[in-house]
C-alpha cells in the first residue's frame, strides 16, 4: 500500500531524507508497516523539536564515512528507525524480515524469528536477487518514551585518532544553531573498538559492514575452540572468544560455555544477561542448569520484557511502566503490579522480581555486531586481528606484560596460572591463543622504531606500532 507522502515544508529535510532512504531499501511504494513505524517516530520527533540532533549526527557520520571512518551509535537513539534510515545507527528496529537488494521486495519473518540477522541466506522469490535479513524488533517507546517526548540521547563512538576531527565537525555544525536547553547535544566518545575496526579494514581490505552475521564457523567461536584448530587445554578456554569485545572475560566465557549460543540473537541474549544485574546468577543460570529454562526464554533485555508483557495481554502503557522500572530499579504502582500478577506465569514473575537492572536491546545488538565482526577477522585473518588488537590495547599495559607475551606457549600458560589471582590478563591470554595457532609476539629490531612485531610462518609478519597518547595514526604495514 502506498502511504501518503507528507509535504509539510517546515519538516521537509528530515522527512525527505527518511523517505528517500526507505524507498531505496523497501521500494517506491513504502510498505505500510514500514511507513507506519517511520511516521510514528517522525510525528514525535517533529512535535517535540528533536530534529536537529538527528540531522547533525547524520552529517557527522556521513563526513566520517567520507574520511574512511566508521562511527558506532551508542545512545538510546540506537533503536530509532529514523536514525537507521539517516545512517546514524546500523540497527533496524523493525520486526525481522528479508528485503531484496535488487527489487526491494520485503518478506516478514515469523514471530519465532528473534532477529533478521539469524535468517538463512536466500534468493528473492520474485527476481532471484539476493535477500538481506534485517530487523531486531525494538519498540519505539524504548527511546522516545510512551508519550514520545523523551529527548534523544546520541553518543557517537569514534576511533581514537578520529576523535578530534569528529569533535571539530560537531563544533562546526553547532556553531550557528540555537539549541533548546532540554535537548542533549550529541556527544563524540573515543573508543578502542572503532580504532581496531579501522585497522582491520585497512589491513585486510574487508569492509566490516560487509561481514555476514549468520556465518556458522564464525558463530562457533562463541561456544567452541574447534574452528581455531586449537584445544581448550592449549588455550585454557572452552570458547574461542579471547580478545572479542564483551565476550572474552572469564564470567562471560562461563555463560557461553553453559548456554552454547548458536545464532546472533542468542548472543544478544548473552550480552543482555551479562550487562544486567540480577539477570544471570540466581536467575537465568539456575533455570538453564536445571533444564527448566533456555537462553532464548531468559529475560535478558528491557525491550524483550516490554514486548513479552504485551504478548501476555498487558496494554503497552503498563508494559512500558513495568519495563521502565528495570532501568533504575524503581517500584511499579500497585495497579500495574496487580495486573502483572494476573497476566504472567509464575516463573516469569519470579524471574522479573529478581532483576534489578535490564540492559537495553539496542546496546546488546550493537555490542554483538562488533563481537561478530571481530570474530570473523580473528578466524579468517589471524595475523591482522592480533596485530590490530595489540596495537590498540598494548598502550594500556606496561612493558612487563608485553615481555610475558613474547614467551613460548608453555611459559605463557605458566605465567597465566601464576598471575591469575591478580585479575584479568587479556593480552597474555591472547598471546597464548596466538602461540597455539602458530603466531608469536617478538621483539622488533631496534632499527624499525617499533618495539614488537607479530610473526608467523604461515601468515607472514606485521609490526605493532604503539600509539603514544592514543593519537598514533600510523598504520601497520605488511613486511
Ligand atoms: Zn527481488
TrEMBL record:
Span of domain DNA polymerase III alpha subunit finger: 203-292
Start and end residues of each Bacterial DNA polymerase III alpha subunit NTPase domain: 14-161
Pfam families for the chain: DNA_pol3_alpha, DNA_pol3_finger
Keyword Cytoplasm annotated: no
Entry keyword set: DNA replication, DNA-directed DNA polymerase, Nucleotidyltransferase, Transferase
Gene3D superfamilies hit by this protein: 6.10.140.1510, PolC, middle finger domain
InterPro entries per the UniProt record, alphabetical: DNA_pol3_alpha_NTPase_dom, DNA_pol3_finger, DnaE2/DnaE/PolC, PolC_middle_finger_sf
Domain of life assignment: Bacteria
PANTHER family: DNA POLYMERASE III POLC-TYPE (PTHR32294:SF5), DNA POLYMERASE III SUBUNIT ALPHA (PTHR32294)
Protein name: DNA-directed DNA polymerase
Amino acid at each position: 500500500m502506498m502511504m501518503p507522502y507528507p509535504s509539510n515544508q517546515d519538516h521537509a529535510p528530515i522527512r525527505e531524507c527518511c523517505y528517500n532512504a526507505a524507498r531505496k531499501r523497501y521500494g517506491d511504494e513504502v510498505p505500510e508497516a514500514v511507513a507506519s513505524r517511520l511516521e510514528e517516530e517522525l510525528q514525535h520527533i517533529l512535535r517535540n523539536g528533536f530534529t536537529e540532533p538527528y540531522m547533525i549526527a547524520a552529517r557527522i557520520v556521513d563526513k566520517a564515512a567520507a574520511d574512511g571512518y566508521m562511527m558506532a551509535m551508542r545512545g538510546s537513539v540506537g533503536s530509532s528507525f529514523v536514525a537507521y534510515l539517516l545512517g546514524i545507527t546500523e540497527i533496524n528496529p523493525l520486526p525481522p524480515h528479508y528485503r531484496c537488494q535488487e527489487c526491494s521486495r520485503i518478506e516478514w519473518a515469523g514471530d519465532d524469528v528473534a532477529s533478521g540477522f539469524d535468517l538463512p541466506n536466500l534468493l528473492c522469490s520474485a527476481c532471484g536477487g539476493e535477500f538481506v535479513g534485517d530487523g531486531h524488533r525494538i519498540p519505539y517507546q524504548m527511546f522516545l518514551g510512551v508519550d514520545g517526548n523523551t529527548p534523544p540521547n546520541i553518543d557517537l563512538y569514534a576511533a581514537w585518532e578520529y576523535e578530534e576531527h569528529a569533535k571539530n565537525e560537531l563544533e562546526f555544525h553547532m556553531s550557528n544553531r540555537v539549541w533548546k536547553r532540554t535537548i542533549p547535544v550529541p556527544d563524540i566518545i573515543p573508543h578502542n573498538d572503532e580504532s581496531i575496526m579501522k585497522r582491520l579494514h585497512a589491513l585486510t581490505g574487508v569492509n566490516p559492514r560487509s561481514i555476514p552475521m549468520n556465518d556458522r564457523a564464525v558463530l562457533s567461536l562463541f561456544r567452541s575452540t574447534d574452528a581455531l584448530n586449537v584445544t581448550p587445554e592449549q588455550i585454557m578456554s572452552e570458547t574461542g572468544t579471547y580478545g572479542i569485545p564483551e565476550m572474552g572475560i572469564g564470567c562471560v566465557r562461563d555463560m557461553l560455555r553453559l548456554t552454547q549460543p548458536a545464532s546472533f540473537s542468542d548472543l544478544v541474549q548473552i550480552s543482555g544477561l551479562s550487562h544486567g544485574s540480577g539477570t544471570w546468577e540466581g536467575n537465568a543460570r539456575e533455570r538453564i542448569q536445571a533444564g527448566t529454562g533456555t537462553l532464548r526464554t531468559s529475560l535478558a533485555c528491557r525491550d524483550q520484557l516490554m514486548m513479552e508483557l504485551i504478548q501476555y495481554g498487558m496494554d503497552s502503557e503498563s508494559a512500558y511502566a513495568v519495563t521502565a522500572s528495570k532501568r533504575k530499579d524503581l517500584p511499579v504502582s500497585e495497579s500495574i503490579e496487580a495486573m502483572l500478577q494476573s497476566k504472567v506465569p509464575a516463573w516469569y514473575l519470579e524471574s522479573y522480581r529478581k532483576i534489578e537492572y535490564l540492559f537495553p536491546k539496542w546496546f546488546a545488538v550493537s555490542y554483538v555486531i562488533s563481537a561478530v565482526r571481530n570474530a570473523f577477522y580473528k578466524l579468517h585473518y589471524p595475523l591482522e586481528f592480533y596485530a590490530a588488537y595489540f596495537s590498540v590495547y598494548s598502550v594500556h599495559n606496561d612493558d612487563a606484560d608485553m615481555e610475558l607475551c613474547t614467551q613460548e606457549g608453555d611459559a605463557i600458560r605458566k605465567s597465566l596460572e601464576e598471575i591469575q589471582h591478580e585479575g584479568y590478563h587479556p593480552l597474555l591470554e591472547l598471546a597464548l591463543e596466538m602461540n597455539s595457532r602458530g603466531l608469536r609476539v617478538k621483539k622488533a629490531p631496534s632499527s624499525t622504531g617499533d618495539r614488537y612485531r607479530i610473526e608467523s610462518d604461515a601468515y607472514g609478519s606485521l609490526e605493532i606500532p604503539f600509539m603514544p597518547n592514543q593519537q598514533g595514526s600510523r598504520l601497520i604495514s605488511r613486511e
